[in-house]
Predict the structure of Signal recognition particle protein.
Amino acid sequence: MFENLSERLGGVFDRLTKQGALSDADIDTALREVRVALLEADVSLPVARDFVKRVAAKAAGQQVTKSVTPGQQVVKIVHDELIKILAGDGEPEPLKIDNPPATILMVGLQGSGKTTTTAKLAKRFKDRMGKRVLLASLDTNRPAAMEQLAILAGQVGVDSLPIVKGETAVQIAKRAKIQASMGGYDIVFLDTAGRLHIDQMLMDEIQAVRDIAEPRETLLVVDGLTGQDAVNVATEFDGKVGVTGVVLTRMDGDGRGGAALSMRAVTGKPIRFVGMGEKMDALETFEAERVAGRILG
Ligand code: GDP
């Protein structure tokens, strides 16, 4: 997911570490290249600018140029700063799924991979934690999407709320909540409707559902291939309905990875998972340390 960025940074740092002694100008040049590499990966400009500024300040503070292995020290600083922009103040708390039944509200634009991700998460909680999971689709405008969720539920071996024609999203949310309590489920996922663009009707509907469902987590699913747009979508959703975490999908594609790097810094929201393919087990947790390691190769 970070192949290009990783390659670009690798090139910059190879040159630095091979050079032996470094001048301030060498470090300046390298950091300028880092900035360009970040921008080409579609990291947002303020984030890239800030990042490089912090690395430069740290390198100056640690008197990197006087050290025996200046290049390696710069790489170490970049590594630490990458972890900081990926994780913010630290790795997030575990998802709040205690006190069953816990409701998780899934939100996002149509085509972002929301339904697929809902099923992947259900599988993960069932297989790894032995949770009893119920899935409910609230996408009343798209019967096919409702059926799709039921099919995926069957594939991953969890239950889905029976579809009742003519119900509103809020009615389905209420029924799901009752069913989750009566049926002894640990987690109920509400897969809200998506639209091609953010619109007021969608947001009103999600707010109404949220007020009824009282979710412990509201996870926003965004397409990682869309780079900075993914971050803009996250900012808007968070402003309107309040998001507790983000899932970036299609990170198996040839996207440039910028969304992953900007998300936390711009929105303050943690990326929880990344989608790595269409299969039901193609979902990874997002850990800053591992991601930083991947970027730096
Ligand atoms: P929704 O409209 O947001 O519910 O989107 P869907 O869940 O129906 O997904 C749209 C398409 O994206 C489907 O063909 C999925 O298989 C595909 N998809 C979802 N997540 C990923 C991912 O992480 N990687 C890849 N390559 N495809 C994905």
